[in-house]
Structures are given as C-alpha cells and as structure tokens.
Amino acid sequence: MLLVFKTLFAVLTCLAAASCVDQQSAGLERPNAIIVREFVLNRAAITLDPSFGFSLHRGTPGVPPRQRAASVGRAVAFNISDAIVEQLRQAGYDAIRSDGTSAEPGGRALIVTGAIRHIDEGQRRNIGSQSVAAYGEIDYRTGAGAAPQRLTNFSLDSRQLARLGHAVAQSVLEIARRQNWPGASH
Hints:
By secondary structure, the chain is α/β, with parallel strands linked by helices. It is built from 3 helices and 6 strands. A hairpin with a 6-residue loop joins strand 5 and strand 6. The two termini are 30 Å apart.
C-alpha cells in the first residue's frame, strides 16, 4: 500500500509540474464531470518482492508469481485512480471513476486516462525501494461528438515523486485554476 500511495503522489506531482494548458484551450467551459479511468496495465513490467510469496502451509507453494503480479498491478491501478477522484472531490469537483462513461449529450467532461509502465514492488524489508512509473493524458470532451481536446499529457515516476495519484489530481486542479472553473460548493 505504501508503494501505491507513493506512486499516486509521484504521478500527480509530475503532472502538476508538466501541466501546461496551451492557448487553444483557454476559455473552455467548466466540465459537468471529471471522469477518471482506471490506469491500464498493458505491457506493464512488474517486479515482485523476492522475499514475499511464501505459503503458510508447510510444503505447499505460495501464490504463483504471475497471479501475484496481476494482483499487485490491479491494486496499483485502482489506488491511483481512486486517489485522483478523492482529491478532486475534496476540491469540490464532481469526479467519478468510470471506464465506460464519456460526456453526456450536450455536456462536457474532463477525461483522465493513463497506463502503468513499470511497477517495482521492492523489498518489504527495505522501505522506499518500491516504485511505479506511469504516463497519461487529460482530455476535454463535449457530448456533441466533437473530437477530444488534449489539455496535457504526463509521464511520472514515483522515484522522483511520492504520490502519483495526488500529482495527477494537482494537474487537473491546475487546469481548472487556469480556466477559472470554480469548485462545487458543499
């Protein structure tokens, strides 16, 4: 879990540093929702902790490495998108995690997508040896079938940042600040 939170912070911080809304995106209307898609694991390299994966039952093998890697990957992907959504909600925006949703007809949405490039589980005895690298995009879409407008893209690594999800959310908030989109009142 420490790896996931460090990863989320790293992605978000890098995003915040790299987010530059170009002149074409100035004056966009506030989106009805911010949709965060779960980060995908296509071809992600996952390095497992070699000191983990044992069985509590003497003489039986532990969880197979392929199954363990899949579980670690799903946990990291979920935690990144969940951290982004939670931070955006705390800032007053209508943010949801969804893989199938886009802007409603006549509506507007910011869509955050990404992919995980590398996960290193590190060694549980060596705190801070874990790392996650990811890349992604933030697009502005309208429900009228118009092509999405890319606002920014990012490439983040938890070796430079601690919490990737936090970094991505900060990039979204920076875009909102530059567009003068107020957060929702509670």
